[in-house]
TrEMBL record, chain A:
The keyword Oxidoreductase is annotated on this UniProt entry: yes
Native source species: Prauserella flavalba
Keyword Oxidoreductase assigned: yes
Protein name as it appears in the record: FAD-binding PCMH-type domain-containing protein
GO terms for MF: FAD binding; oxidoreductase activity
Boundaries of every FAD-binding PCMH-type domain copy: 1-177
Keywords: FAD, Flavoprotein, Oxidoreductase
Length: 299, 166
């Protein structure tokens, strides 16, 4: 199918984009990488009168490292983030998750901000940014709002962004030394949305005690899922295989997956625990091997 | 509501100035406005990869991009790979030699995905190869001959590279 007829706007500055959104936000759609929006347009599930393409706004494409945060511009593509040393060093869980997002051709166009603004609970980055307590920076002609991840993802495909607001950037606190991260998932074909995915990031003390734990899950809940209870069982404990199994059991208890064509809810629940256990073991191994803070973060 | 856009796109090495509407996809633009029907449309939702073209050398799905967004960029379609008299390029030659196509529907997208691998990745691992074609569905070949063709294309590349200059 083909999209309904719409007026396409291609602003060159953020200010211009915000003007357009203030005027057309109610019957318009923001276009980032188009890898979710264009399928919706093609199927006429979205029928906007106006489409505002952010592709020409260079200011939204930067990755910066501040003293207290890694700042990822909303229009940074997956492809660009995958190759960023700053992302690998300061946000290893993001780096570990990126290779699992879609296929190469989709990663070349799809953006970090688009994934966050779409708010799909099956997508890797919304869950990862939830677990990392990231800050979403929304801008409109009215001003700038900083929204914590826990207040940003409201329901399946629903976020706290208002009609006239753009997501401008995402801020993540950099990790300390002795941190390791890993992401793994179970799916029919690598690159498609997984049945369930799990990412873990662990920071250890010098005597191998967990000082911070973050666990992100995809495909197991109506919104991007952070396994807070499971994280709590880990903090203050010495690294130990039994610990991962205990956290996995808590995850199986806490997730609330739906059944669909691809898997039953029970299967997803069971898989969620298994992949959390694997992610924790891999993250711990990396944290133990990493004293400096710059780390290998694939897989 | 509708809009028209004048765009300058480098298609297969030739800069074309064209008018297009806001909602026209890059795929429809290539097929309908430029007559380049080598770009195939399977699903129009990003799943099959048949519509893959190279945008500034990177494989992208032309069904998930608007023609207007290609303004100022360079696009390579399967028509851009062969020589002036239709001689096949090394990747196409390898597909042909390995019987890496049956119905041919997936082939333009598959060939361009492999072309990008050959151009961009110096020493691809098995994982790199899986990644390169993992987003392209082929219902006919079972992928075995496609992998064979990729090996041949990579071999052809290394022979070309190591031929000493006379
Ligand atoms: C075959 C296929 C497989 C995929 N597999 C995966 C996968 O495994 N994992 C995964 O995470 N994703 C997957 N995706 C989706 C892909 O990651 C999308 O790129 C992503 O969800 C949206 O990013 P985008 O830049 O393409 O945004 P768009 O499609 O352009 O926009 C998505 C939505 O967000 C809004 N939006 C975008 N940017 C902003 C902004 N800055 N401010 C306000 N609103 C904004 C748009 O209005 C729209 O509603 C897949 C897609 C396809 C087609
Ligand atoms: S037609 Fe574009 S991916 Fe299938
Ligand atoms: S050759 Fe028929 S789909 Fe690939």
């Amino acid at each position: 199918m083909k999209p309904v007829d719409f007026e396409l706007h291609r602003p060159e500055t953020l200010a211009e984009a915000l003007e357009l959104l203030a005027e057309h936000g109610a019957d318009g759609k923001v276009l980032a990488g188009g890898q979710s929006l264009i399928p919706l347009l093609n199927f006429r599930l979205a029928r906007p009168d106006h489409v505002i393409d952010l592709g020409r706004i260079g200011a939204l494409r930067a990755i910066r490292r501040n003293t207290d945060a890694l700042v990822i511009g909303a229009m940074v593509t997956y492809h660009q983030a995958e190759r960023s040393a700053a992302v690998a060093e300061t946000a290893p869980l993001v780096s570990a998750a990126l290779p699992h997002v879609a296929h190469q051709g989709i990663r070349a166009r799809g953006t970090i901000g688009g994934s966050v603004a779409h708010g799909d609970p099956a997508a890797e980055l919304p869950a990862v940014f939830s677990a990392l307590d990231a800050t979403m920076v929304a801008v409109s002609r009215r001003g700038t709002r900083e929204i914590a991840a826990r207040d940003f993802f409201l329901a399946n495909l629903v976020t706290a962004l208002e009609e006239d607001e753009l997501l401008a950037e995402i801020r993540v606190a950099p990790v300390p030394a002795r941190t390791g991260a890993a992401f793994n998932e179970v799916g029919r074909r690598h690159g498609d949305f997984a049945l369930a995915g799990a990412g873990a990031q662990l920071t250890l003390t010098d005597d191998a005690t967990v000082s911070s734990a973050r666990i992100a899950l995809t495909g197991v809940s109506a919104k991007p899922f952070r396994a807070t209870e499971a994280e709590n069982t880990l903090v203050g404990q010495r690294v130990d295989e039994r610990l991962w199994r205990r956290a996995a059991d808590v995850v199986r208890r806490d997730v609330d997956p739906a059944a669909d064509l691809h898997a039953t809810a029970d299967y997803r629940r069971d898989v969620a625990g298994t992949i959390v256990e694997r992610a924790l073991a891999a993250a711990a191994a990396r944290a133990l091997g990493n004293r400096t803070g710059s780390m290998e973060a694939t897989g | 509501m509708s809009s028209t856009h004048v765009i300058d796109v480098d298609v297969n090495g030739e800069v074309r100035r064209c008018e297009t509407t806001g909602r026209t996809s890059l795929a429809d633009f290539l097929r309908d406005a430029l007559g380049l029907t080598g770009t195939h449309l399977g699903c129009e939702q990003g799943v099959c990869g048949a519509c893959t073209v190279l945008l500034d050398g990177q494989p992208v799905r032309s069904c998930l991009m608007l023609a207007a967004q290609a303004d100022g960029r360079s696009v390579t379609t399967v028509e851009g790979l062969s020589g002036v008299d239709g001689e096949l390029n090394p990747v196409q030659e390898a597909f042909c030699g390995s019987h890496a196509l049956q119905c041919g529907f997936c082939t333009p997208g598959m060939v361009l995905a492999v072309q990008a691998l050959v151009e961009n990745v110096p020493e691809p691992t098995d994982h790199d190869i899986d990644e390169a074609i993992g987003g392209n569905i082929c219902r006919c070949t079972g992928y075995v001959q496609i992998r064979e063709a990729i090996a041949k294309a990579l071999e052809a590349r290394s022979t070309i590279e190591t031929v000493p200059a006379r």
